[in-house]
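Q: I'm teaching a short session on how sequence maps to structure, and I want students to see two examples side by side rather than one. Could you give me a first protein with its sequence written out and its structure tokens following it? Keep the formatting plain so it prints cleanly on a handout.
A: Of course. Example one:
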Amino acid sequence: MKKLIALSKEELAKRLWSAEPKIKSILTNSKHMEEARYLIFDYLNRMERDLYNMKADTSFTNLNIVKKRSVREYIHALSNTLRSENEHLTKSSALELLFNLAKNKKGAPDKVDKGFLLEFLVLFSGITGKYSNPLKSDGQFEVKEAREAAIERSTQLDDYAETMTRYFKRYHTGFDRKILKQRNNLKKEIMAYFGADESDWKDYLWHMRYIIKDVKTLSGIVKLEEDEYEGVKCAEENKIPFEITPYYLSLFNKDGVCDHDRAVRAQVIPSPMYCRGVMEKRKKGADMDFMGEKSTSPIDGVTRRYPGIIIIKTYDACPQICVYCQRNWEVKNIDAVVKMPEEKTKEILTWINDNKNITEVLVTGGDPLTLNNNYIEWLIGRIAGIKHVERIRIGTRTPVALPCRINEGFLKILKKYHDWGKREICIVTHFEHPTEMTPDSLEAIKKIREIGINVYNQQVFTYYNSRRFETC
């Protein structure tokens, strides 16, 4: 690999076209780029068809099923790279660079770097089934004794591991010492702002009483960027639900947006564009139920999309409202009357009891852990009493936004109704970013796991948690 990188771009280009002469021929003989795109896609489509055509006389005939699948993935990767949609999104064209390079246009080599040529060398080698070691000088896999090959592979894996470790060090988690220190200082300032002490901070009901819902309070504690201030002010003025728990606010960087709190802020601070979008839809009377839940609700408070699973929504508020939430169209401010009337809840329970096809119930909302333990025990106990229900999921973001809510009373409820081999009680939460993982949230998860309850994480992919493998 090091020898290959040492080659000039001209030499790398020769190896590139040698790996896939057919594509070079298409590029060279096409009158314009769109003709080349069409012919390359046609060529790749035929290659993919030939992969599994037993009668086709191709170089793929002797490949085993695993290698054929790999070739197919290479074909898909190359196709996606050359699509016009991706050119529109990235504002660049790999096909144009290859087109000019193949036609020996003046200045074409200057517009590509070695990384570009190496990447396409791998892709071209992969689509022809020579991907085992496409960077060897002869393009063929070098056969070695088993132990010698294993040692070489182990050395390569060490290189990969070191590269990955160096790469991911750029990203932060909620356990970084510097961040912990900053957050602890901000926590003290938040407590001072509300006149609280450590015992208040450990009480989830205190956090519920002091949920931040206005721009004056928020900007009085942390610095907001101009667009953040505008977004929160717009949400407040137009009654667009916006809430942050004091605990989650302590995860912010006090002095303004920075690399390690960017994703945290983006989840709970509505942007001006978001607010304008909501206002425009309201003005037009448009339905904001973009998931179409109304059309999958056989009775009030129930969503059913799958054969054996239903969602019940007994509470339409959360301690903290996330911008990306699919239920923002119905989630209300914490101060509103949002608890489903008991009679309605009983109707849902009767409906589940009468339908033996329902084997799994997801209790969500809003966030059901906004409710007190007495109500939660009543609800979970009633569901657990239905014989054909084998699994009860509780969907909540409180381990992330309000970890002290996972108290002894709630843990006793989980333990009481979790019955090995008969009925599973489990938690599904939403850790969206590594900096949300803190000693407090870890302690909450640990308490749940220690009593034998599984915790699952459902991550919604957003811009900030999916950029450059940050979540990994």
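Q: Perfect. Now a second example for contrast.
A: Example two:
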Amino acid sequence: MNLDHAHCYGALRTRDPRFDGRFFTGVTSTGVYCRPICPARTPKPEHCRFFACAAAAEEAGFRACRRCRPETTPGTPAWSGTSATVDRAVRLIAAGALDSGGVEDLAARLGLGGRQVRRLFQEHLGVSPAGLARTRRAHFANQLLIETDLAMGQVALAAGYPGTRRFNAAMRQVFDATPTEIRQRRRTRAHAATDCGQPGPLTVRLAAHAPLDWRGLLAFLAPRAIPGVEMVAGDTYRRSFRLGDVAGIVSLAPAPDGTALRLQVPLAAAAHLATLVQRARHLADLDADVQAIGDVLADQPRLRPLIKRHGCPRVPGAWDPFETAVRAILGQQITVAAATTLAGRLVAQFGDPLPDPPAGGPQRLFPRPAVLADADLSALGVPRTRAATLQHLARAVAAGRPVLEPAPDLAAAVARLVALPGIGDWTAHYVAMRALHEPDALPAGDLVLRQALADGGVLPTPAAVTRLAEPWRPWRAYAAMLIWRHQSRRKDPR
């Protein structure tokens, strides 16, 4: 969104939720910054300053509003679609890239220099990468203080603080209150995940721009759920996970108001909560403003009637990039059901059993790359060449090669993948779309896409599909998902 003062103030006056997350308002008369939907009295225009993200408002000296809670803002701030490099960097920071490394390390992962990354952040966000990371940690900690009963030390650890002293100082700086004061001020314990003295699962609310369309996401995930690892029951998605020495089950279900998801994780995984939250947001594509993306795609004649009928879908992401890449390789040239069966066999033979699994829930963990690297896959029933491809991928990941890490751009991400024997353009783009969160990925060779774009019954070539989809940039992944949804009654896409 253009941060023109008049336009932003007009949006602020309406409190239109469609602008939530696209800008933040710093009020000079109070020193507080707010979301556009804040219920507080609208300030005078001369008292307003507008920022692309919360971190920029904080670097300008404003503190977070206690009423509208900027840390609960849905994803996709104003930079989305403005700079692909900045978008990738923001996703890496959200995944904790600056918790254990510096800006130079982040820049190296993006294929840039540190100075260039800092310049891009100032140009597009008005904040430094380090400032964005500080805000991310503080906002996540504030959410945990309000929504859970985790001990202060556990909150600090989960949010990425090296100790409680830094944690306390950050809370005072951003929220003008100590962690204890923040927790004491919360109006209700309706979102508390545990009762003091009675350890139980943690529940965190994951905000999203409307429409959420959780049913649409489940309709895609359910037939692809890996037996033993994932399951969909009713409106709830459950799966096993392993992070470090902690293994367990997480679940995702809609919040009672239907505008957000609720992530439930074991208390033992509290130290990994930030990672689990980020993985859940990625899986459900919660940081996408699908209304805005749909408005762009609706300008295309081929897509306009589909948008009108279905709306813009979210692109289901990946809980674990390696797992999704393996699933994509298993699905080459076979049906969804057949690929799901093969994935279940793989897990049953090579996945570790889950400690103390609940009856009727996920029972196993997805195999580690090192296990599949040299495993005998002949009993799975996959062609020998495909088994070899799985092992090439597993060996590359086990060796630390960045084949499944964010790349400087889509072309680089695809190039890394197709360099592995047995991975072609379709698989590479599908993995980029789901595992690497590339919004412009396009599996142009997909049969369902080719059938949908056929002219007079003649299937276009993948090259022709790429040409036809050129006007859909930079949202070709969303256009592909839209076409798949439209065609799903006739044929399920892989």
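Q: What should students look for in example two?
A: Point them to this: Residues 110 and 154 are 32 Å apart (CA to CA). Also worth mentioning: The beta strands are 24-27, 32-34, 48-51, 63-64, 202-207, 230-233, 236-243, 246-254, 260-265.
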